[in-house]
Amino acid sequence: MRRLTVMHPVPVEVPPALAHQSTLREANLGVVLRSVCAAEEPLSRAGVAAGTGLTRSTVSRLVDELVAGGLVEEGTALLAGPGRPATPLLPSSRVCAVGLQVNAAHVAARLLDLRGRVVAESRSEPDLVGSEPAAGLALLADHLAEVLEAVPTGGRVLGAGLALPGVVDAAGERLLHAPNLGWRDLDPGPDLRALLDGIPLGLANEANLAAHAFAEPAPGRRGRSGHFVYVSGEIGIGGAVVTDWRVQTGLHGFAGEIGHMPFRPGGDPCPCGSDGCLERYAGRLAMTRRAGLPPGTTLAELGRLADGGHAAAAEAIDLAADALGVVLAGVVNLLDVPTVVLGGEIGDLADRITPRVTELLRARVMAAAFMPLEVVRDADDVPGATGGALLHLSRVVAGPAGFLTV
């Protein structure tokens, strides 16, 4: 495997007299790079200047820095009118990050570039319910090695983000508890860091990373909604809350555990130690059990059976929709977020459950008559991995000065 170039932001001591000038330059570098990354069509230097309000000479100087530093590439100059041809600017295709994801039903690795494109991916669908961590992490390491082989020649991998279906510590270093995996108090790093060869690795809750990817589907580019609650439905149910395009993690980093909010207190026992939790009614294992189907049945298969007249499958889906609608109405009442995003496998049932969830939201949200409530689907099939890579790439856009090559 080729040796990868690893870039780390290096703190620099700035003399007080130069602090203002240096800080302004760093801020403007971020403004210019974000403008380049956010553009639906490539901008020229003049286009960046027009969009940011910076002078053309300032933009030209900052773009030259970003090009020389390997964060921006120049396309082929185009003659769009009188005067000099306009040179289109593009985020670098050689600056990358890795996203990793482990949950109870699949393991995935994705390599994304600064344009937000998937350069390579590797994945499998093992059954990791109640598994030993070593087996799942060894499989993840295999997928990681495969995508690292696809790094472009001369490319830089700036970080790796691992999405896990459970509670992660605030430092992003240890998995504290993943009930459906059966993993507890675990540092996955030693199994991965040898392959990463110095590339920074961070851990985060799967739903939080998926929500970040939905809020910012490419580095520096905002998604369709900046205020939403994200429901990640797999074997269990995860969740995240986004306001102003930012995932709200709470004081200790534990916010968003929607799957363990009560739907029927005193109801079905949950691996978290409580009972009646949402995921005991809307998680995949709960639905397939109620339908009398094997635990390996996917939610897409469950939906097809329900459409074909399987009464128990239809009843299980209907109960899941009721549970989601009731719990999510409480979330919307509390947080005033107008959009619900269905991600992961639960998205495969979106056509069946969205009408009922929407009906319950309109009936139970106090301000429903005054806000545009909507339920939408996230089409990404491994959004946690996507978010794990995007989180690192977004940091490049936010502070490009620390990632320029020398």
Kindly describe this structure.
The protein has 406 residues and is an alpha/beta fold. The chain is 38% helix and 19% strand. It has twelve helices and 15 strands. It has helices at 16-38, 45-52, 56-68, 133-148, 190-196, 206-215, 279-282, 284-290, 299-307, 311-335, 350-364, 383-398; strands at residues 72-74, 89-91, 95-102, 107-113, 118-124, 156-164, 167-168, 175-178, 183-186, 201-205, 228-233, 237-243, 246-247, 339-344, 374-377. The strands form four sheets. A five-stranded mixed β-sheet has the order 5-4-3-6-10. β4 (107-113) and β5 (118-124) form a beta hairpin. α1 packs across α3, α2 packs across α3 and α10 crosses α11 (350-364). The longest helix is centred in the last third of the chain and has 25 residues, at 311-335. It is globular. It starts with 15 loop residues before the first helix and ends in an 8-residue tail after the last helix. The model is unreliable at 1-19 (pLDDT under 50).
